[in-house]
Amino acid sequence: MSCYTNYSKIILAAAKNQALQGTVDNANFVGTISNVSCQDSLTITGKINAEGVIANLLYQGNGCILSQGSCALLVQYCLGKKIAEFRNLPEATFFEIVPVENPAARQECFLLGWQALNKGIKAFKQ
To answer: What is the per-residue pLDDT across 100-125, written as a single tens digit (0 to 9) for each?
Structure first.
């Protein structure tokens, strides 16, 4: 089984998980980003509780399976974690969080969710 086959199954399964899609009611942070080269767009909404824990997190967007699937994997990873873990982290950290190979030609699609999350977290004021 090739690496591409494994990668496709992980991304496809994550992108199909509709439980991670939508908007969080009474969200206290929002991050929206678009990839102008391919027209993909993502919005991440979340609720961070008084202890600084990401209590709820959902995404919605339009675009390729790679941008949607990698964002879904990111949402799964972040739930229940402290916001402090995500402040000022470089994009390279995302490659450790999402357990799939990153094709260099599709890096912008792969990182779209990470960029939306960071945009929302940086704007968040507790």
So the answer is: 665 566 788 888 999 999 899 988 87
pTM (two decimals): 0.86
* Parent domain of 63: 3-123
Cβ–Cβ under 8 Å, residues 22 and 3: no
Higher per-residue confidence, 8 vs 37: 37
102: number of CA atoms within 13 Å, CB side? 18
**Which residues make Cβ contacts (< 8 Å) with residue 82, sequence separation at least 6?**
51, 52, 53, 54
CATH number at residue 118: 3.90.1010.10
